[in-house]
Write a sequence for this structure.
């Protein structure tokens, strides 16, 4: 095959190159801000809508970059980008446990916020303030909740469980009943059991519900306790009985997939699943109830891991003022209200929990006050840069107990030794 | 007689320096190789040396400038009354065991299946060209994509494989292939064998097609049983090609990362040495410790490759008298 020669061919070629290059050009005043936000559920879609509204308002453009579902993988990606000083992403959506780990990469937002952070939950603002610098604006908060099938509980004459033992009983009863009635894919309880940060969230809830803790407030390792042992023994009893064995590889979306397709009685997940479970195309639309996670026995407590995501601006961004402006826009009351109604994303502004439109879309927000107040934070502040290692050791130990490859006493004793050595 | 002596004497007095033409050719050869050597030095030698160096420091990902030299501190150190470091870390040795188990199992299976496929493809039959192209499809799909495909196939609730096995009444309940620690490694090996058998088949087929046909004609005339022909004629002749394929595949298998990372839950039961090194390098930001793990991985792979090559050459001498 001979390559085309001649003036016409080369002219066409150059014209093509010129057209492609010019097609990407923008008016000189417009700036493109890259934001990485959202991957799970409808987060990406909602973020795109919000970011584009800002772009239209200010005459700039926004590029939304999608990220992996797993928060662990997202952290790994961010750490590589930030360590390389990359200016590819201006605004980062960061997890509530990351300000301590990533503190050297973000700018102080106080000059740009002009006091706007006072309208948000102060505990979250404190969490995001490291060494006196406001490293991120709160965007939405998250707590672990128990989702249940209202219709199935009513059919079998059960009320939402108060303790884990009750949950086990009800789940087993309904699971067997439904299987006999023909749905042999029915399971009792689905949650996140894969060896990643989500398992840490689940396990912290179990241990806290028995009034135990990983570390105490001053950073001493307290994980090898009877409360923790009881919690892990209870949880490992679910696997294979009321939870499918595959739960050991489930993240948030896999668990939601099983629950939303009607094959689970209970699910532990974050609030975002509410909007999706009640969407028009969901098989369980209108049949879902939400309550706090059960207590660990009569003298336990209702627990919920505090999650939530914040927006931060990287030091390496070429347009930090515009990026900060985008962050301020996305965290305003109006935008958080829109996200609450459309996607059940918990606002970080207390006044929105009394807003009638928000409550109409998410009736369970009204009961969230006590849940948020009793939420347990993971030990990220007290462990600082060591948090990823601590969390990793914890979820590995829990996973081994759940997979029944190590008994709880041995796993907790080893974990205790490992954590003490890490935090020396 | 005298000429023979002169010839021998002439040979003994052969010029120590090669001729000008030979020297020119050697120079030209170096010139042609130079670009490749430069690229190799930049892309392979420099990162390798840097990783080996970082293994002796306590570098962290965000603060690479503050790294200090700590000698063998990452490998073995006596601190606070106990030994610490990579060489006494039980999860490192588990990772080594997982990697070796994976490598031995997958390379063996791939060699056997690849050989069978190559033998079939060696015969000519209608549609052979099409079959050869189709065979390469698993190899052509990127590992990440095929790992995701397999993770959906093996899903315990929605997976096609569990559905099939249930319908055939081979299992009573769906098996959680990737979550259960005892079946997770099997799932990884199945996915890897599916992907890499075509590669082995291709290399072995190339070896088979270079075999001289006169041995086979002689065997046919003598009426030797086909199985004996295979063991006594084909196998010894194609052994060098098989060894090359095994070494290539073994190197890849020891470095396995993506299929284990995507398919399994990343727990200690299945993590390989690469997964372990990445965990420390990226997740924990400990570049020094992670580089030490990566250096040990490099040393392990190098040693095992040398052993395999030496064993292969020994067998060669015995069978092929080379």
């Amino acid at each position: 095959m001979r390559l085309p020669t001649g003036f016409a061919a080369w002219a066409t070629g150059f014209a093509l190159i010129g057209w492609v290059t010019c097609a990407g050009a923008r008016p000189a005043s417009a700036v493109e801000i890259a934001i990485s936000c959202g991957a799970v559920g409808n987060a990406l879609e909602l973020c795109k809508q919000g970011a584009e509204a800002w772009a239209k308002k200010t005459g700039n453009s926004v590029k939304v970059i999608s990220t992996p579902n797993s928060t662990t993988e997202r952290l790994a990606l961010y750490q590589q980008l930030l360590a390389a000083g990359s200016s590819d992403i201006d605004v980062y959506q960061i997890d509530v446990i990351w300000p301590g780990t990533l503190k050297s990469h973000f700018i102080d937002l106080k000059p740009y916020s002009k006091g706007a952070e006072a309208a948000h939950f102060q505990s979250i603002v404190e969490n995001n303030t490291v060494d006196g610098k406001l490293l991120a604006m709160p965007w939405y908060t998250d707590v672990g909740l128990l989702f249940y099938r209202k219709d199935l509980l009513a059919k079998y004459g059960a009320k939402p469980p108060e303790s884990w033992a009750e949950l086990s009983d009800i789940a087993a009863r309904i699971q067997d009943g439904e299987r006999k009635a023909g749905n042999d894919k029915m399971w009792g309880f689905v949650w996140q059991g894969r060896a990643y940060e989500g398992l840490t969230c689940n396990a912290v809830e179990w241990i806290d519900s028995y009034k135990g803790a990983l570390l105490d407030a001053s950073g001493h390792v307290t994980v090898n306790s009877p409360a923790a042992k009881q919690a892990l023994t209870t949880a490992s009893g679910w696997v294979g009985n009321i939870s499918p064995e595959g739960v050991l590889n489930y993240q948030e979306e896999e668990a939601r997939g099983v629950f939303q397709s009607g094959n689970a009685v209970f699910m532990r997940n974050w609030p975002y699943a509410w909007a999706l479970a009640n969407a028009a195309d969901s098989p369980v639309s209108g049949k879902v109830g939400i309550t706090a996670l059960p207590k660990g026995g009569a003298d336990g407590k209702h627990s919920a891991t505090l999650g939530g995501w914040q927006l931060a601006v990287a030091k390496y961004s070429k347009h930090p003022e515009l990026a900060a402006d985008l962050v301020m826009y996305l965290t305003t009351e109006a935008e958080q209200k829109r996200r609450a109604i459309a996607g059940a994303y918990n606002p970080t502004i207390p006044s929105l929990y009394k807003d009638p439109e928000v409550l109409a879309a998410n009736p369970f927000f009204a009961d969230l006050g006590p849940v948020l107040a009793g939420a347990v934070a993971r030990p990220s502040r007290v462990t600082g840069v060591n948090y990823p290692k601590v969390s990793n050791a914890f979820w590995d130990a829990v996973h081994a107990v759940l997979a029944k490859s190590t008994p709880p006493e041995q796993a907790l004793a080893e974990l205790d030794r490992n954590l003490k050595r890490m935090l020396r | 007689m005298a000429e023979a002596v002169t010839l021998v004497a002439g040979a003994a007095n052969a010029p120590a320096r090669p001729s000008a033409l030979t020297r020119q050719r050697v120079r030209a050869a170096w010139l042609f190789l130079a670009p490749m050597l430069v690229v190799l030095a930049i892309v392979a030698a420099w990162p390798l040396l840097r990783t080996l160096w970082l293994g002796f420091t306590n570098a962290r990902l965000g603060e690479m400038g503050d790294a200090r030299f700590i000698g063998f501190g990452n490998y073995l150190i006596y601190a606070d009354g106990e030994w610490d470091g990579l060489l006494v870390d039980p999860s490192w040795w588990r990772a080594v065991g997982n990697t070796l188990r994976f490598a031995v199992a997958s390379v063996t299976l791939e060699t056997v299946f690849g050989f069978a496929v190559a033998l079939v493809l060696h015969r000519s039959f209608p549609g052979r060209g099409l079959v050869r192209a189709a065979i390469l499809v698993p190899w052509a799909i990127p590992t990440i994509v095929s790992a995701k495909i397999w993770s959906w196939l093996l899903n315990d609730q929605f997976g096609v494989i569990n559905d099939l096995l249930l319908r055939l009444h081979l299992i009573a309940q769906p098996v959680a292939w990737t979550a259960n620690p005892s079946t997770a490694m099997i799932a990884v090996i199945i996915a890897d064998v599916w992907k890499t058998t075509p590669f082995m088949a291709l290399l072995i087929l190339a070896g088979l097609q270079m075999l001289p046909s006169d041995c086979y004609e002689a065997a046919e005339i003598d009426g030797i049983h086909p199985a004996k022909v295979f063991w006594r004629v084909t196998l010894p002749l194609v052994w060098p090609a098989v060894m090359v394929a095994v070494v290539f595949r073994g190197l890849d298998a020891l470095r396995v990362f993506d299929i284990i990372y995507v398919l399994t839950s990343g727990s200690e039961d299945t993590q390989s040495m690469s997964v372990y090194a990445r965990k420390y390098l990226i997740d924990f930001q400990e570049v020094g410790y992670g580089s030490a793990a990566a250096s040990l991985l490099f040393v392990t792979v190098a040693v095992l490759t040398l052993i395999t090559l030496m064993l292969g050459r020994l067998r060669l001498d015995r069978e092929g008298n080379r």
Summary: The interface with chain B takes residues 72, 75-76, 79-80, 82-83, 101, 104-105, 185, 193-196, 244-250, 257-258, 263, 385, 388-389, 392, 396, 399-400, 403, 405, 421, 424 of chain A (CB under 8 Å). The two ends of chain A are 70 Å apart (CA to CA).
